[in-house]
Amino acid sequence: MRECLVRKIRQSSKLRNVRYDVRGPILEEAQRLEAEGHKILKLNIGNTAPFGFEAPEAILADMMHNLPYAQGYSDSRGIYSARTAVAQYYQSRGLVDTEVEDVFIGNGVSELISMVLQTFVDDGNEILVPAPDYPLWTGAVSLSGGTPVHYRCDEEDGWMPDLADIESKINENTHALVIINPNNPTGAVYSKEMVATLVDIARRHDLVVMADEIYEKIIFDDAVHHHAAATAGDDVLCLTFSGLSKAYRVCGYRAGWVMISGPKELATDFLEGLTLISNMRMCSNVPAQHAIQTALGGYQSINELIVPGGRFYEQSMLADRLLNEIPGVSSVKPRGALYCFPRLDPEVYRIENDEDFVIDLLRAKKILVTHGTGFNWFAPDHFRLVTLPDVEVLEEAIGRIADFLATRR
Questions:
Q1: Could you tell me the CA-to-CA distances from 302 to 170, 245, 287, 312 in Å, in that order?
Q2: pLDDT tens digits for 332-389?
């Protein structure tokens, strides 16, 4: 009888430099604690539904109405009405040359980021990604065979990109510049001048701009969102990513898009490749595609949430104030998005491993947050807090964090 050799089945080496700590070992520890009967307040991910934010009724009604017509595959790029609505949305914002053929619909921005990078990146290509970042960008660049190169955002300057740092990291292998605006995890919203300068850097160095604008409608006070594509004009290829998840409170529907603008005649080969990748996954979730036209064209209920008295606004402002009241903690006031990214003064809190720190916080206070190095920040001195709980819950949660920090000073 032949002896059978048992070979260990291992993960691909392509995953060696890929991490996604928003849902990593810390979440696994939270799930273990939940299995023991503990109630965990999860402030690690911007998932709106668990905190009482429901989809607008018109979106629900439109999806249900179209379910009988959503049982088959759609065009791999998306149904025509959804792509038309996206094109018209950008036309209304000054991008008059946007056409239906410039839009690809996907299962949220996350899928489209991966699809675009798989299409775009060759082994050894370098992609400029902000630090801190939304870690999917870093992971997807690595998984596609490229090298993510992190440019610093300056906390003392309201988390604006460090332009000199960007310039210093561009070389012959650099192919694209990622802009996350409004920014996750910092809540920064870039000025028109900053967006124009970033696009000009791309123009001078022949880079593609990849603009992650999923939080474009969640902005506070006098902040104004400026589309990178509007500044890029017709001489810088710009890929704009956005979707319904956050502004329309439908994270689970997975409905997003990427819009291509600029010198598309120079990108025909890339667009053929993106169409091929789209065809390979057949199509994105069809029922959710039917929500896009209603969402973009109907009443914008997000406006009630981002002004004084609205939940997004009040919770973000409360979190910022309470965090800054903790000794040794400083937080830049968020101007958009759904997060705070506070700093722990290293002279007050001597943290060598911030993942261990947030696991200790989780075990002690049953609060789940994400450590700053999970967003590819350079030092173990930050964490990200989601500001989605209502004010009473948020006040209690930050109070528990303050109590825990008091034991670490």
A1: 38, 12, 22, 9
A2: 999 999 999 999 999 999 999 999 999 999 999 999 999 999 999 999 999 999 999 9
Task: Give the predicted TM-score (pTM) of the model.
Answer: 0.93
Distance, CA of 75 to CA of 104 (rounded, Å): 10
Average pLDDT of the chain, as a whole number: 93
Beta 343-344 vs 329-330: how paired, if at all?
antiparallel
Q: What are phi and psi of 42, to 5 degrees?
A: -95, 105
Q: Could you tell me the CA-to-CA distances from 345 to 306, 324, 350, 381 in Å, in that order?
A: 30, 12, 8, 7
